[in-house]
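FAQ
Q: What does a multi-component entry look like?
A: The components come first, one per line:
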Amino acid sequence: MNCLFEVAGMSKQYGKQLGCENISFSLYPGEVLGIVGESGSGKSTVLNCLSGQLEPDEGEVYFDSPTKGKVDIWTLTEAEQRHLARTEWAFVHQNPRDGLRMGVSAGGNIGERLMNVGHRHYGKIRQTAIDWMGRVELSEDRLDDRPSVFSGGMQQRLQIARSLVTEPRLIFMDEPTGGLDVSVQARLLDLLRQLVQELGLSVILVTHDLAVVRMLADRMVVMQNGHIVESGLSDQVLDDPQHPYTQLLVSSILQV
Amino acid sequence: MLEADNHYNFAYLDEQTKRMIRRAILKAISIPGYQVPFASREMPMPYGWGTGGVQVTAACLVPKDIVKVIDQGADDTTNAVSIRQFFEKTAEVKTTEKTQEASLIQTRHRIPETSLSEGQILVYQVPIPEPLRFIEPRESETRKMHALKEYGLMHVKLYEDIAHHGHIATSYAYPVEVEGRYVMDPSPIPKFDNPKLSNCPALQLFGAGREQRIYALPPYCKVVSLDFEDHPFSQLRADQKCVLCGADESYLDEIIIDNAGSRAFICSDTDFCSSRQANGFAGAGLGEAVL
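Then the predicted structure of the entire assembly, as tokens:
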């Protein structure tokens, strides 16, 4: 099987400050990869470099594009990068306000990506939006409401619907459950797990919450000070951590 | 006729400024629908009164020009009268109210009913040149969207209209696509006028003073109003006849004519209306009211 996404020796410096160094991993179709680490460990830097938002100083980021085959995304033109980001990729932000248009109705938010790729039939766009509202467990009669009158959990579900509507193959998620209370978190995780399985999505998931990784991720990498210190199957890493930092991380989880 | 004031350069602006504006206009004509930045000057009138249009007009004027100025179709409103007097005073050009006679027409929010002809220039006053502004506030982002021809967002705006009102409720400043490339704001003309933008024999220039942008439609350029397959573009016109000239195909203004709040519809294009009346056409009349 071909790799969907491959990172080789990627580094990023912010002046003298290290963002991340020598990051390498690969991701296969249908796989969920968790990136964990504490604040400041370089998780977000890695995610931004992978998703075309921040150019790395060194290393390659390959994506298996359906039209061009395996390409380094940082050799593509900006137009091609943005096209990839609209069609093949999706980005779920921690704060739904960053991913939604707060002044546009829920239906318009879901329909935006469709209209961006050239759909011009109002009835069909609306029907697709209704379908996706259902799939993320939002009531159909909220279709014409603005996300600003939605609760945090509903906004996050709307953001997921909006990202998945063009059926991307790869999703970047940045702390998708951050800022939600635990019961809402649990339902959102359930929903995500279901969608990932149904649609065969590949996910790169950045989080500091090991429970989220345990539930969603097949494999995980642990980052500390801009380096990957441990990687492997999620259950293996979480049940039998080898690196001292991972051991510390696993042992810091509060038991109820 | 007002007395000429010899302290002004021809058409108020200095020659270097006019050259700068003409360069922007030439660039705009060569890239139809593209917003060209220019170094907009302070004009002796407030922003929002047509400072962009006035600068474009000043840069285009030659002494033999005949100028017509309209505001919402009318020759006799404050904005139209003051701009007309401005050019009478600073350029000593002839002015007219007749659309056919004019070689340059500066307009605010209307295209004349009478068809324009080759050799005429129509100058629009533009408040906000960026059609994407109200959905995407970042200028850096909208420029990129124009450059990469990413116009899905424009349809999000129309989608919102249909979702909330059942039809495309945008009735003015209705976005258009120029020659299959740039999406453009046609300035706040009613969407009734949109079809006249396309394949027009006259040169159409758009000037936004505060926003410092000039854009243009060269003659006979193809302009398409955006729409959905199942909600096609449609013109909007009050289903009435003009009470003064009886016209049933012109764009109408609804006016209140007495203290009891009675209403009447009259042509917004005063030249069109009065020339019809001169040719013997008449409407239902205003009754007691005097305009």
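Q: Is there any commentary attached?
A: Sometimes. For this entry: The beta strands of chain A are 5-14, 17-27, 32-36, 58-65, 69-72, 89-92, 170-174, 202-207, 219-224, 227-233.
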